[in-house]
Amino acid sequence: MRGDFGTSISLRESVTEVVFGRLPATLELAFLALAIAVALGGANAILAALWRGTATEAGVDLFNGVTLSIPDFLWGLIFILLFGVAIPIFDISGRVSPTLELPFVTPFFLIESLVRLRGDLFLDLLGHMIMPAMALALPLAAVVSQILKTSLKEAMHQDYALIARTKGFSETYVLWREALRNAVTPSLTVIGVQFTFLLGGTVIVERLFSYEGLGNLAIDAVINRDLPLIQGIVLLFAVLFVGINLTVDLCTVALNPRLRHG
Asked: In whole angstroms, what separates CA 135 from the centre of its chain?
């Protein structure tokens, strides 16, 4: 009994070490994809809200429809063929070039390269991450764009927007100073929920690009029938999902005074 207990403890410790050793790579990839999605989707939504009823809004709707209809793993294959094979701009596999010296202390390579002011390492890491991050970001960018565009169009017809117009402010001013801050709150909830799906999408995308993250590790665990490792990864993903949803709810309450005061 004592021997079995000691074996289970050592096994649990090794699973924890392996899982948390791969987690930072996945988190860096996921947050880079989220930043790209918010920037791209937000810019498209603002353009569509400023030029409502024009060809610009139709173009944004077309972009949203195309990017949302293509799954992230298919975007990954498209990027590999375009920018890895046809026009070899970016690296198509791995997390960092094996020829570089890696003086990292923590597993957060991208963040540490910035702290250490190692531009060569940062650019190399970014070159390996940009295609999988874009593959994950494009479907989320379409969701962000559509939700924020709808919220902005509704906010532009509210009383505070009409009052700002009567004072002589331009449409750009009304959108940036009045409508945007009121339209962000409902979009935040959607972004948080979609971010959990983005984390789940890293499993296939990391495998496509041989990226050394948690998703790639999960597929290896399934292939090798490593049940303790599978359980550890599933448990960690569950904790991440709960933590992200809780954070989004707290941020929504903090940004919306009506929810704070009941």
From this structure: 10
pTM score of the predicted model: 0.87
Asked whether the beta carbons of 96 and 121 are under 8 A apart, the reply is yes
Q: What average pLDDT does this structure show over 231-245?
A: 90
Cα gap 116→102, rounded to integer Å: 12
| Ramachandran angles phi, psi of 78, nearest 5° | -65, -45
Per-residue pLDDT of 33-75, as tens digits, reads: 999 999 999 999 999 988 888 898 899 999 999 999 999 999 9
| b/e burial code for range 119-150 (CB count within 10 A of at least 16 → b) | eebbebbeebbbbbbbbbbbbbbbbbbbbbbb
For residue 96, give both structure tokens.
Answer: 């960092």
Q: Which two tokens stand for residue 71?
A: 């799954």
- Among residues 36, 123, 114, the alpha carbon closest in space to that of 72 is found at 36
- Amino acid at residue number 154: E
Dihedral sign, Cα of residue 180, residue 185, residue 188, residue 193: negative
Q: 184, 147 in Cβ contact below 8 A?
A: no
DSSP secondary structure letters along 73-136: HHHHHHHIIIIIIIS--S--SSSS-TTS----SSS-HHHHHHHTT-HHHHHHHHHHHHHHHHHH
Backbone angles phi, psi at 66, to 5 degrees: -70, -50
Q: What is the pLDDT of residue 258?
A: 61
- pLDDT tens per residue across span 120-140: 899 999 999 999 999 999 999
What is the residue-wise DSSP string for 38-54? HHHHHHHHHHHHHTTTS
